[in-house]
Amino acid sequence: MASPLAAASAYASVARIADPSAALAGAIGGGAKSETSFTSVLKEAMDAVNETGKKSDTQSRAMVNGKSNLVDVVTAVSETEVAIDAVVAVRDKVIAAYEDIMKMPI
């Protein structure tokens, strides 16, 4: 069940980037500013998806060897499927945004 937690973490990271009032408050307050870029958020999300896939593979191998039960395997595979669906949805949105930008007149 790490997939919903990873998704919530990624959404929170994106919200921090997208919230201009938080950036303004950090600049005015002069507090410690944490650098968060879209690239780092994307890398963390991809690492989380990769880790979820590895857990699914591990559970599947354990099932084949008779060391795991079916419920754990199905849960791990479902988490991986949800994570990959999220990645595909983000990819589709990025491509759509790129196409919209390319349609803009100069």
Task: Describe the 3D structure.
The chain has 106 residues and is mainly alpha-helical. The protein has one domain. Helix content is 83%, strand content 0%. The chain contains four helices and no strands. The protein has helices at 2-18, 20-29, 38-64, 70-103. Helix 1 runs antiparallel to helix 3, helix 1 packs parallel to helix 4 and helix 3 (38-64) runs antiparallel to helix 4 (70-103). The longest helix has 34 residues, at 70-103. The model has no long low-confidence stretch (mean pLDDT 78).
Structural class per helix/strand content?
A: mainly alpha
Order of helices and strands: HHHH
Count of structural domains: 1
Low-pLDDT parts are none
| N-C termini distance | 47 Å
- pLDDT averaged over residues: 78
Number of strands: 0
**Number of helical segments?**
4
Strand content: under 5%
Question: What share of residues is helical?
Answer: over 70%
Largest sheet: none
Give the overall silhouette: elongated
Rg from alpha-carbon coordinates: 19 Å
Key terms:
about 110 residues; about 0% strand; 4 helices; mainly alpha
Annotate the secondary structure layout.
Layout: H1 2-18, H2 20-29, H3 38-64, H4 70-103
Sum this structure up briefly.
This protein is mainly alpha-helical. Helix content is 83%, strand content 0%.
